[in-house]
Amino acid sequence: MSKWDKRRKIWKKPKNLGRNINTKYNEESVFIHPDGKTLYFSSQGHNSMGGYDIFKSTAKGRSWSRPKNLGYPINSPDDDVFFVVSASGRHAYYSSVQKEGFGKRDLYMITFIDPPTEPIEPQLTLLKGIITDAVTGAKIGARMELIDNELNVVVADFESNSTTGKYLVSLPSGKNYGIVVNAEGYLFHSENVNIPASYGYQEVEKNIALNKLAAGSKIVLNNIFFDFDMATLRPESTAELNRLLKLINDNTSMIIEISGHTDNKGSDTYNQKLSENRAKAVVVYLTEKGINKERLQFKGYGEIEPMASNETEEGQQLNRRIEFKILSK
C-alpha cells in the first residue's frame, strides 16, 4: 500500500501488507471497498479451493484481519479474480472460470437476493447531489472537503463536476463528518453528517445552493456545536470557526452579524437569552483570534425565525443553529 502525501503531492514509498495477507504464492486483483476498510483480493495461497480464490480482510487499526475465503458458489476450483463490490453491497462483479462459461475466464455479476450479510455488507453512506448558484440555479464546479469533526482533520478533498455540478462521496459509518463546499466568489457552505457505527448502507441526496459573497448573503454554520442547553463551544467546532476566521481575514472591510436561533422548547425569554449567548460565544472566539470587534455584531433571535416546523425532531434540530450574515462588504 502507498499513501498520498498531500503536502508534497507525491505517493509515499509502498509498504508490503505483511504475512497475514501475502503468502509464498501469488496475490493479485486488489479492491478496497468505498467503506475504506474492507479489502478483497485473489490469492493462490491461504485456504484456496483451487487456482485463485477471492478473499476478504478487514482493517483493524494498523493490521488486517485473517483473510476469509468467500466460498462456493463465488469461488470455483479454477481461477476467480478481480472481485468488485458495489457501494450498496447488493451486487458484485468478477472474472471466473465456470462450467457454463463461453471461454476460459468470463465476466459475471452476482446479485445478493437476501439483505447483505457478512462478509459482503458495507457500512457506509453515499452522499450525492448537485451544487448550484442560489439565485440563478447555474451548476457550479466547487471544491469540497470532508472533515472528521472529532479529530479535526481533513480526511478527503474532491471537486464537483464543473458542467453538471454533481458530486458523490462515500462516508464510512461511525463518524461525525463536516462537509465544506468552496467556490470562487461564493460564501462557503457547510453540512454536518453524523453516521452511527450501527448504520448499514444508505444513500442520502443533498443538493447545495451557494450564496454569492455579497452584502445580505448569509449561511448556516452547521459544524458549530455547543454543550446541551449551554453556550460553551465544543472542540469539534474549531474547524468551522477557523474557516469563518479565514473568510473574515480575507475580506478586510467585511462587517458581519453572528446570530443564534433555537427551537420552540422552553420559554421565549430563555430561548432568546440562550441564542444570544451562543452567538456571543462565536464573536468572542473571533475577537480572541484578532478580529476587530467593530466588525462583528451578534444577536439572539430565539425561536422567532424557524427554518422548519418544530413539530418534528428533525425540524427542531434544523432550527437550533448559528448563522453568519454579511452586513456590508
Low-confidence stretches: 115-119
- Assign the CATH class of the largest domain: Alpha Beta
Percent of residues in helices: 10-25%
Q: Structural class, from secondary structure content?
A: mainly beta
What's the CATH architecture name of the largest domain? 2-Layer Sandwich
Tally the structural domains.
3
Tell me about the biggest sheet? 5 strands, antiparallel
Quick overview:
With about 325 residues, this protein is mostly beta strands. It contains 3 helices and 22 strands. The chain has helices spanning about 240-250, 270-290, 315-320, and strands at about 5, 10, 25-30, 40-45, 55-60, 65, 70, 80-85, 90-95, 105-110, 125-135, 145-150, 155-160, 165-170, 175-180, 190-195, 200-205, 210, 220, 255-260, 295-300, 320-329.
Task: Describe the protein's architecture and organization.
With 329 residues, the chain is mostly beta strands. The protein folds into three domains: 4-111, TolB, C-terminal domain (Neuraminidase); 123-212, Sandwich (Immunoglobulin-like); 214-329, 2-Layer Sandwich (60s Ribosomal Protein L30, Chain: A), CATH 3.30.1330. It is 12% helix and 37% strand. Strands 3, 4, 5, 6 and 7 form a five-stranded antiparallel β-sheet that branches. A hairpin with a 4-residue loop joins β12 (143-148) and β13. It is elongated and about 75 Å long. Mean pLDDT is 87; it is low at 115-119.
